[in-house]
Write a structure and sequence with these properties.
There is one protein chain. The chain contains 15 helices and 2 strands. By secondary structure, the protein is mostly helical. A two-stranded antiparallel ribbon has the order 1-2. Helix 4 runs antiparallel to helix 11 and helix 11 crosses helix 15.
Amino acid sequence: MERRQVTGGDLVRYAIIFALLIFFLFPIYWMIATSFKAPGDILTRPPRWTFQPTLENYFYAFEQANFGLFIKNTLIVAVVSTAIVIVIGSLAAYSFARYDVGAGHLMFFILSTRMFPAIAVVIPYFVIFRDLGNTVIGQALSLGLDRLGALVVCYTMFNLPFGIWLMHSFFQDIPVELEDSARLDGYSRLQVLLRVVLPLVAPGLAVTAIFCLIFAWNEFLFAFMLTRAVARTITVGVASFWTQRGILWGPLSAAATVCVVPMLIFALLLQRYIVRGLTFGAVRG
């Protein structure tokens, strides 16, 4: 097979791509490098490109700043809220796709709850959870200020409209004839959903779960307003290194690395599922 000759246009294109990669990846490299620097190597001018790596900043973040608790809280809130969105959202999206519930008006109302900014409802949520935390039900369900249940409810409420709209298109791409055949075989409507439809829309469910998980992992506003110490998440934990005696750049970079790198690796590993889910049903025969 004849090899394609590299032209001048290709070289220019590759140079632009390489420059863009450096522009977008350099801040991540600098953050990771700073997390391994000693305090004396961080704010030097000119910057030190070679240095003796140290884990002092990570020890400070996990031992003195209790960053391990923040990671555990974030994992619990992100996983639980994502699971609730997938369960409730798949049922709602399937009903909208097959029964046209509300004739489109209800779908638009659900989407409208995602249109307004989060800052518009954070104060009402604060008052609700403050009062709810003083009740027996609120304490039993961990629905109060500085409780994980409050964050789970907030993240579920904001991710659910997005999940319903995203999964609605996936369910619409499944041929109705497959469900009719299953009904003729004696399956109930719920069995059709569980055994026929959901396995076919698994890529769509996966991409919905990925986006919801990333949102819950990176969310800051609700976590900042509704938590104090017990339910603090990693995004609020990173901001806590801005102290009265200055910014602790080393521990801050270590905490930010722990916050960013796991989701970065997670997205890179699952990017083929993201592409497959977003293009699901795009080409139809």
